[in-house]
Every structure is written in C-alpha cells, then in structure tokens.
Amino acid sequence: MRKIIALLTGLFILTGSFATVTVIYPPLKASEIFFPVGKTGQKISLMELSTIKIKDFELLRGEKMKFFDRMTFKAAQKKVRDNIDRDGSINNKKILKALRPKGGETGFHFGGFALGFLLGLIGILIAYLIKDDYKRNRVKWAWIGFGIYVVLLIILFASGFAIA
C-alpha cells in the first residue's frame, strides 16, 4: 500500500511540475503581407492596399471599376486602414487569426493518426499520397498510429487474447 501511495504522490508531483509555454508571435507587419491582384498575378501589400488611389488600383488590376465597386473598395480600404497601427502592425484579432498558422503543421493530427491506426500500412500509404501543407505531420502521425496499433496487438497476443 505504501508503494502505491508513493507512486501516486510521485506521479502527482511529476505532472504538476510540467510548465506551460505560451507562444508569442511577433507582430505581423502590413507591409509584409501580399495579395494577388487582377489576372496578371501582380501582388500588393496590405499597407499599399490601404493607401492606394482608385486609378492606380484600376491600372494594377487591369480593368476599370464600376461606381458601386469604387464605393465598396473605398469602404473596405477604410476598414483596412483602421486595422493597421501607426507602426505598420495589424491590430485586428480576426485578421491575425486568419493569417496565423491554422494548426495541423505541428502537433497532433487526428486524420493521420486515424489513417495509421485504423487502416495500417494502407493508411500510411494514403498519408504519403495526399499532398498539402500538412503532409509531413499527417505522415508522422500515421506512423505513430500504426505503431500504437502494433503495440496493442502485441499486448493482446501476449496476454493470451485469442481472435476468433
């Protein structure tokens, strides 16, 4: 009984000693965020977009804007200007959230884990075949899921569990 109490006490102390880390991203500068404009593929920064004149934007875009398009552009331009601080950093949390990494590049990837755990080697092959920004993380978690599946099978067979 003393050993169990000592073990539980040690586990509580160990789990309570883990520190949490808050990731602080550097402020995003509006001059470093670029968007494609028009059919030519030219890019414009968010800072330039907030201050550009309609005539210049029409030239960059390659086509003339209608009256309501110009009015909408001016209203959107004002909103963009309001969301940029004097130092050029973005202060709107919604914009920052949209521009920050969305997850999946690092950390747990449920889809990859499920592919490896439920489909085995075929799931790992599928993880390799899917090409997007999350491929490395998906493949890693597919291998981890497959590894856990294999370990569980070994434990079941070692314990005498028979699959009928």
Task: Label this structure with key terms.
about 160 residues, two-stranded antiparallel sheet, 8 helices, about 5% strand, 2 domains, mainly alpha, elongated
Describe, in short, the structure shown.
With 164 residues, the protein is mainly alpha-helical. Helices cover 58% and strands 5% of the residues.
Write up what this structure looks like.
The chain has 164 residues and is mainly α. It has 2 domains: 30-99, no CATH class; 110-158, no CATH class. Helix content is 58%, strand content 5%. The protein is built from 8 helices and 2 strands, in the order αββααααααα. It has helices spanning 2-16, 46-51, 54-61, 67-82, 93-99, 110-119, 121-129, 135-158, and strands spanning 34-37, 42-45. It has a two-stranded antiparallel ribbon with strand order 1-2. β1 and β2 form a beta hairpin. α6 (110-119) packs across α8 and α7 (121-129) runs antiparallel to α8 (135-158). It is elongated and about 80 Å long. The two termini are 39 Å apart.
Please outline the helices and strands:
Blueprint: H1 2-16, E1 34-37, E2 42-45, H2 46-51, H3 54-61, H4 67-82, H5 93-99, H6 110-119, H7 121-129, H8 135-158
Antiparallel strand pairs: 1-2
Helix pairs in contact: 6-7, 6-8, 7-8
